[in-house]
Amino acid sequence: MSAQFAAAYSTSTGEAFQFWILGTVAVIGALSTVLMKRAVHSALSLAGTMIILAVFYLANGAYFLGIVQIVVYTGAIMMLFLFVVMLVGVTAADSLTETIKGQRWLALLCGLGFGVLLFAGIGNASLTQFDGLGTANANGNVEGLAALIFTKYVFAFEITGALLITAAVGAMVLTHRERTERPKTQRELSEQRVRDGKHLPPLPAPGVYARHNAVDVQGLLPDGTPSELTVSKTLRDRGQIRDVSSEALNDLRALEQRAEERLERTEIAPANLKRTEEASK
Amino acid sequence: MENLIALLVAAPLLGAVVLLCGGRRLDAVGHWIGTILSSASFVIGVVLFTDLLGKNAEHRTLMQHLWTWVPVEGFQADVTFRLDQLSMTFVLLITGVGSLIHLYSVGYMEHDERRRRFFGYLNLFLAAMLILVLADNYLLLYVGWEGVGLASYLLIGFWQHKPSAATAAKKAFLVNRVGDMGLSIAIMLMFTTFGTFAFGPVLSHVGDASEGKLTGIALMLLLAACGKSAQVPLQSWLGDAMEGPTPVSALIHAATMVTAGVYLIVRSGAIFNAAPDAQLVVTVVGAVTLLFGAIVGCAKDDIKKALAGSTMSQIGYMVLAAGLGPIGYVFAIMHLVTHGFFKAGLFLGAGSVMHGMNDEVDMRKYGGLRKYMPVTFITFGLGYLAIIGFPGLSGFFSKDKIIEAAFAKGGTEGWILGGAALLGAAITAFYMTRVMLMTFFGEKRWQPDENGNEPHPHESPKTMTIPMIVLAFGSVFAGGIFGIGDRFLHWLEPITGHEEGNSPVSALTVTLATMVVLVIGVGIAWAQYGRKPVPAVAPRGSLLTRAARRDLLQDDFNHVVLVRGGEHLTRSLVYVDHTLVDGVVNGTAASMGGLSGRLRKLQNGYARSYAVSMFGGAAILVAATLLMRAV
Amino acid sequence: MNPVNYLYLSALLFTIGATGVLIRRNAIVVFMCIELMLNACNLAFVTFSRMHGNLDGQVIAFFTMVVAAAEVVVGLAIIVSLFRSRHSASVDDASLMKL
């Protein structure tokens, strides 16, 4: 088929080359969007696919759309996605095990059938026309689009404005939480702590006795075991706590050893430290 | 004058409304209100009667149109009253006897705390009965017909605390319903045949209809008459209806309401004349009933039930006469009127006896009462002589004419019907003599009851004896007034028509034969009950006697044929319902349920499952689009 | 190369996106798959625009983007409030039906 209309329908070899390379990448990106366990990875794969699509828009003469695709879609919308992924505290990995019986097979069957049908439809369609955008883009792509949007499609354009405002208000309404009571003051919080009788002082800070004092590093208790209380609950829920106790103890021993050397003391390390080290392994 | 007709109905209707809605504050005067209003109706009746007498025979029909009841195109039902000679006769009988019985009830119901309600019902009955006989079309007649049925039901069951009374009321109502269905079907047939149901157009256009249709209408009318007048096969309710207070038995179940069937047949005479087959059925029904009732009357020890059997038998005479056509119409009505007098008198006498005997009804516990209640004895005795047809008294004139007319029917039928009527006369003489002897003659047979209360027979109060005396006068003289010089015949002939018939035997022979059977009947009764003492406990008796005590097995027959049959039919229908209908319904439901149970799994609430359905649907749509383009 | 290939790519991406919607349980990933489907459509529009030599296809693609932006805003808001009330972003957890 393509040979038959080759003369009229062909694009440049460079574009063909670009299509086959980037098209493959785009499909891989789409597949990994679906198949990646972590939502963050999915989002990044999708962003990649979108950028490739932006390139294809540009290649198809849709310069304005290509740029908008990068700026708005990849730049704004995908970042919004990432933001929400972070906000809802996605668990480390999404299980891909299917829980609904037969769902996966049905989905694959439907997808396969639908794809085959679409391909058959495109294959059968008499796509004999190929004009190119030379005339349409003669006065510039953006000007051409603007002429259409502000004349022929002006009402649709106005209505999209209303749609956007509605969406913005809707999002605010949906995520807004009415406070039904006054937030507790610091005084009340401390009184609460005293009344409960637990953790009278503030919670221990992360990184105590540890080499790092980053928020995801647990503080160590005097006997060297890490304390859960020192790290924020969100990080604990996500399982994003770095276990640095053995590292910290090794560092501590090295520090002590260096101190011994500098002080020219030849005593060996205490036995209890060794035991702790073995336990932590 | 026409405008007075509505007042006839309005007076008792007003009484019913006032008494039934008036509440307890009318308890003290209620019975007098009822009596006065029914008497007022009687007075109006008399005024109208004298007016009619003053006119020529052709102008004696008065019409009063009140309003149009159903003003629909092609279906015009008017509330119009028609007063002619036939209606006038009934009006006088109903209001006259009715007023007397109102008066009697004042004394009879004296100790009943619901007396006001009783009088309300009596007035309601009078109003309905007057509507029945004054109606100018069958639909309005039907209103009265149902009204008297309602009043009858209410009055039979007046002592509804007695289960037997409540049951009897229900029985009467149900059996009457069968007959009423016949009347309603007859009215519908009339409407489809003639397009109207007013008396005038229907009866004058009888010639236009086919004989088959007329026979159908006539048989349906006969069914109605059988129900209301207790004729075979719908006779079973009348005996039980004696559970009501005795004035009710006298007024409704002897003198007036039960004769409505005869009125219906005579009024529809033109239809019956054109349907000889139906007439034959009418005569057969009449003959069978007159013997049936007479035989039942012979065996009953309950005085009221014996009289009820007698009533059935006498109405049988009337129906027989009405079935004879123009030969017998006049005599049917004449016997109806005289019977109204003497049978009401007999019932009132029976009520008076019961009143004096602590409501005892078993005649075997009476005996020798003539010494204790002389007025009752004399009035009852005159009624007795009248009913058996003692020469010169009412029954003699009217019954004799009917027997003559039966012979005059001619042919084998005439002989059979006449013979049956003669036989009936003999049995009548027998059972009435039996009642008379057991009640008023012989030794006293009453005993103290289990509480030691011995009855003290005494004469009834004036309010009760006066009506009895008046009715006794009627029993004695009415027949003579009507019969001598054929006055009644000339009075009624313009309405019913009359033929002489060709009797194979002379009138004198019939009269002599009647006298002979009368003497035989009385003689047998005297031999059995007058000569020897009456046993206080009924002897076992012959097979026929035992059957007659059970009302000739009428209830057993109904039970076996109708109740059992109905039960079997119901049971088989229930079986069909359970297996076939329920099977189909439940099977459908079960399969739907099973299917739903499986389909329910599709609705699992997972958005993704629904999305699969959508996606599959979209795929199918794409496939369909492609296919359509490919074709 | 025949530009129809862009259409084949578009169909492939759309199908992948649709299947992803059906397979994944994480509401955010499902949402991303929907975005993928929208982008696949946009690619088809842009390709058709080039084949027919007028800009209407691009205008439609532009509108699609605007609508997609609005949809994303609302959809993500819904996901956030869903997560707040259920402490989960799984679409299966929203089922309240008995089985």
From TrEMBL, chain B:
Residues 135-417 form the NADH:quinone oxidoreductase/Mrp antiporter transmembrane domain. Its main location: membrane. It is a multi-pass membrane protein. InterPro entries: NADHpl_OxRdtase_5_subgr, ND/Mrp_TM, NU5C-like, Proton_antipo_N. Residues 69-119 form the NADH-Ubiquinone oxidoreductase (complex I) chain 5 N-terminal domain. It is found in: Endomembrane system; Membrane. The chain crosses the membrane at residues 29-53, 86-106, 118-135, 142-161, 181-202, 246-266, 278-295, 315-337, 372-394, 414-437, 466-485, 505-527, 610-628. It holds the Pfam family Proton_antipo_N. Keywords: Membrane, Transmembrane, Transmembrane helix. This is NADH-quinone oxidoreductase subunit L. It comes from Streptomyces prunicolor.
UniProtKB/TrEMBL annotation, chain C:
Signal peptide: none annotated. It catalyses: a quinone + NADH + 5 H(+)(in) = a quinol + NAD(+) + 4 H(+)(out). Keywords: Cell membrane, Membrane, NAD, Oxidoreductase, Quinone, Translocase, Transmembrane, Transmembrane helix, Transport. It is a multi-pass membrane protein. One of its GO terms (biological process) is ATP synthesis coupled electron transport. The chain crosses the membrane at residues 6-23, 28-48, 60-83. GO terms for molecular function: NADH dehydrogenase (quinone) (non-electrogenic) activity; quinone binding. The keyword Transport applies. Its EC number is 7.1.1.-. It is found in: Cell membrane; Membrane. One of its GO terms (cellular component) is NADH dehydrogenase complex. Its main location: membrane. The keyword Disulfide bond does not apply. NDH-1 is composed of 14 different subunits. Subunits NuoA, H, J, K, L, M, N constitute the membrane sector of the complex. PANTHER family: NADH DEHYDROGENASE SUBUNIT 4L-RELATED, NADH-UBIQUINONE OXIDOREDUCTASE SUBUNIT ND4L. NDH-1 shuttles electrons from NADH, via FMN and iron-sulfur (Fe-S) centers, to quinones in the respiratory chain. The immediate electron acceptor for the enzyme in this species is believed to be a menaquinone. Couples the redox reaction to proton translocation (for every two electrons transferred, four hydrogen ions are translocated across the cytoplasmic membrane), and thus conserves the redox energy in a proton gradient. Belongs to the complex I subunit 4L family. This is NADH-quinone oxidoreductase subunit K. It comes from Streptomyces sp. R08. The gene is nuoK.
